[in-house]
């Protein structure tokens, strides 16, 4: 995971993106809000694996960027990017502009992550099954 996080940091710097890494304390606060909103159990490796009623699944291939943009359109302008990469909590969290997310992700190897905004009304997962899963509450 260290190599991935270094790569993300380098891409943010090289592209002068408006993303910043949250401190561990800040990340914990924001993830606690999301946990409460969705009743997530952070002891579970794949949060997206639950059988939720209000979810939408899209398996992607070449159309990843188009699908990502479609799902993100209803999110706030600034979002949290949570890098999970199939690791257990705690995770590294970045905060930045939604419009810059696709460019940041395109610079990386494929990895698991999820995004949410301040409202905590929806969360979008990108899974190791090459699926985007949107949860709404």
Tell me, briefly, the overall form: globular
Q: Whole-number average pLDDT?
A: 91
| Helix content class | 25-40%
Given helix and strand content, the structural type is alpha+beta
Order of helices and strands: HEHEHEEHEEE
Chain oligomer state = single chain
Question: What is the beta-strand fraction?
Answer: 15-25%
Number of helices: 4
Q: Rounded to an integer, what's the Rg over CA atoms?
A: 14 Å
Order of neighbouring strands in the sheet with most strands: 1-4-3-5-6-7-2
Number of DSSP strand runs? 7
Q: Flag low-confidence runs.
A: none
Biggest sheet, open or closed, and with what strands and sense? 7 strands, antiparallel
- In whole angstroms, how far apart are the ends? 30 Å
Tell me the layout of helices and strands:
Layout: H1 2-14, E1 20-21, H2 24-38, E2 55-59, H3 64-72, E3 78-83, E4 92-97, H4 101-106, E5 113-116, E6 122-126, E7 131-136
Features:
137 residues; alpha+beta; 4 helices; 7 strands; 25% strand; globular
Structure report:
The protein has four helices and seven strands; from the N terminus they run αβαβαββαβββ. The protein is 31% helix and 25% strand.
Provide a short characterization of the protein structure:
This protein is α+β, with helices and mostly antiparallel strands.
